[in-house]
Each structure stands twice: as C-alpha cells, then as structure tokens.
Amino acid sequence: MTFTSLASSSRGNAYVVSDGETTLLLECGLTFKELQKRLGYGVAGITACLVSHEHQDHAKAAAQLLKGGVPIYMSEGTAAAHKDAMDAAHLIKAGEVLRFGHLTVVPFRTFHNTDEPLGFLIEDGRTKERLLWAVDTANLGVTADKLTYIAVECNYEERLLNRSDRIPSVLKDRIRHSHFEVNDVIKWLHKQDLSGVLTIWLLHLSAGNSRAEAWQRRFEREFPGIEIRICPE
Question: What is the pTM of this model?
C-alpha cells in the first residue's frame, strides 16, 4: 500500500492511497484542473473518492469528479451540505465496511465543526497493511490495532495560537474546537499500539501556528524507530 499527499493545508487537501491495482482519492479540495495536474494522469485511474466533510478545501472538486465518472463516497451529513453531490454520491456511515478491490475501508467518526465528518481506516487484504487517516478533527476517540501507517492532522500549537495577534479570539476558539493541537496528537498517538507502525504522516499544518522543523524533531524523539513525514502544502 502506498500513501501520497497531493495537497495538505487550508488551501486544499487531496491524498492518494493505492495497492497498485485500486487507487482511492481521499479528499478533493483543489480545483478540478489542479487536481488533474497533481495526479499526473488525470482522474481515469481513480477507483473512488472518499470525502471527510463538506468544506471546500476538502470537497471542492466533488461535483466535477462525479461528472467525470469517479464515484464519490461521503456521509449523509456531508452530502446534505454539498448540494451538487447529494443526489449522486454514495452515502456512508461510521462503522460501515466498504470494499474496493483488495482494499477495505471502514469510516469512523471525527470531531469537526460540520455535520457527520469522517476519518477512514484502510486495509490491504493481500499485504494486511493498515492505514488510519484523519484530518480536520479536534480529537480522536478511535483506536486501532495492527496499524502500519498513520496519517493524522497536526494543525497548530496552542502556545503559538494563543499569542497570535492576527487571529480574533472567536476564530481562535473555533480552531481549538475543530482542529488537532500538536500536544493532543502526541498524547493520542501514545495511546495507540505503535508496535507495527512504520510511518506517521502529519497532515494539515497551520501556516502561522505550526513549526514544521521543530515538530519533526520532537516526533522523532517521541516515537523512535518510526519514520515521521510532514506533508507539505
């Protein structure tokens, strides 16, 4: 199983999971033209697109993907807020088992300022590799065993957010209640069984309230032996 980040910021999110035969797009938060460009080969090779929630930096190209013949999977809450996709999208729920070729996907609940946002646990039936993926969430209640890869939001650092004079207090509170803070991410990771984890990807870093290089060093100290990758914008 391979995991590739095409875009990972508030300006757009798109990620690709593939087993070499089946290719899943997680999020489509770029313009359709830009998404095609970053995929390199257009969208013909995409088996399906899974959308976590309706915000434009995660679902911008959903309607055009549907028109291009790519099946879209999202929760009913997400589809209700994304009118262009409501009638044509496949509606999914947390705990439901989805199968795409040899890849199995189980959606789970995340915590964002939207109705029914989801993360995804993806398993390759042949290699038994397992990826847990979650973005735009203030916390995570899910735990999973036998993970190989983790791709998780790590958006901001409270100390940086608190002292920022560019962000109104109302927006600061919204960020705190809808995005994963670095210390909370570390606490959550320490609760997981990481014995088989090879790589942790940190997603969706805030442009002004994160410290990529310092976080890289910190995660390497916290989780020795695991490759840490920070996804660029």
Answer: 0.95
